[in-house]
Amino acid sequence: MPVTVERDGPVTTVILHEPAVRNAVDRATAEALADAFRAFDADDDASVAVLWGAGGTFCAGANLKAVAEGEGNRVAPDGDGPMGPSRMLLSKPVIAAISGHAVAGGLELALWCDLRVVEEDAVMGVFCRRWGVPLIDGGTVRLPRIVGLGRALDLILTGRPVSAKEALAIGLATLVVPAGESRTAAEALARELARFPQLCMRHDRLSAYEQHDLPLEEALANELRHGLVALEHEALAGAARFAGGAGRHGAAVGGAGPADAGGGADGAAASGASDAGGGAHGAAASGAADASGGAPAGGGPAREDAS
């Protein structure tokens, strides 16, 4: 099966399982991905999802071999995106666990996720630039929102490889972890998120996404609308737990309690995560070209400046 799903309590891990093509996504895989995330979003017992690619590669984009053979991904303006879930706004967070390459449509899947846990030797980039394949799974929308327009245009126009170190510096990566540990670290972070009061976290998340489409006054009113739901259902209980001594000094609270008085999760909960200066192997892995257009032969190291 091109996509498998594993559950561990409140954490759902969706796995791209086509290592022979570096997890490049054809139409069937895209449909399976979309179905998996629809099922996750509808499952009341599932709180956070992780998207991971088996075999050492997150996702090398669309399967261009299938496209060349006339079996390309769905490109209709309505419904699911070419890569599957890229047009969905789920009600719950998704964390990308990135190893190897997350390029072209694979980068777009990573951008669709809320957070990105990146292995220190991973490479990201708009590698589809060299094949004339456009970004049509949200790349031109989400990348500028995450890293800013100037940096996004650099990556979109040049198609150059981006190391994990640079990705962290420009805000593209949330955490950088040692090679081979992205899934473990992402699932650990997912469990931390799952321990928070879920209604409040989900409404804050949706407000953050929805504000892009609204003028400031309307965005603030929308934030309050979301917040009132959480105030009615969770905030009083959380305040009572805090008054009783739970969660002081940043200590995590078991069950549904917040991590601290501010309710903020510490991203360093994922073991092995680097800080903002965390190192990464800047050079793109050679020989990574695949059906979707991997790294160019002889690709040099990624620039480490923020531009």
TrEMBL record:
Molecular function GO terms recorded: enoyl-CoA hydratase activity
Leading EC class: lyase
Keyword field: Lyase
Ranges of Low complexity composition bias in the record: 282-294
Chain intervals for the UniProt region annotation (Disordered): 259-307
Record-listed E.C. numbers: 4.2.1.17
Coiled coil: none
The UniProt record lists the keyword Lyase: yes
Pfam families in the cross-refs: ECH_1
Gene3D superfamilies, sorted: 1.10.287.2460, 2-enoyl-CoA Hydratase, Chain A, domain 1 (3.90.226.10)
Keyword rRNA-binding appears in the UniProt entry: no
NCBIfam families: PRK08259.1
Similarity comment text for this entry: Belongs to the enoyl-CoA hydratase/isomerase family.
Protein name from the UniProt record: Enoyl-CoA hydratase
